[in-house]
Amino acid sequence: MNLLGLYNYWIYIFLLVVGLYAVFVKGNYVKRMIGLGIFQSAVFLLFISMDKVEGGTGPIFRGVPTEGQLFANPLPQVLILTAIVVGIAVTSLGLAIAIRIREEYGSVEEADTRRMDDQS
Asked: Could you state, in order of their start, the residue ranges of all structural domains in the chain?
């Protein structure tokens, strides 16, 4: 198995790095929330792609399973579905806080809000 054959993992690594870069380096709170969303999406895609079982079928039993029959594990999809709901809640809360910061300080830049806090 060569490294170029695992191109989907390279895409996930790229998305993870882009998301982390936006969260740690950007000073704009909205851009940080976008970076967090990119990071979460990369993790979701990684977990869903790891679930693939070559030759596996859905875990629906019709009678007695045959010897050596492979089933795909439904747990990663369930976990990712729950994580998507939590991610939407975190994003909406973060954006609501960013709106409140904009109302209070007139800016969503971290440097501006720190400067205004230091002055008061």
From this structure: 7-51+71-119
CATH 1.10.3720.10 fits 7-51+71-119, yes or no: no
CB-based contacts of 101, cutoff 8 Å, min separation 6: 29, 107, 108, 113
Does an H or E element contain 116, and which?
Answer: helix 110-119
Q: How many helices (H) and strands (E) does the chain have?
A: 4, 0
User: How high is the pLDDT of residue 84?
Assistant: 94
Q: Count of alpha carbons within 13 Å of 70, Cβ hemisphere only?
A: 7
Q: What is the pTM of this model?
A: 0.80
- Give the whole-angstrom CA distance, residue 81 versus residue 98: 26
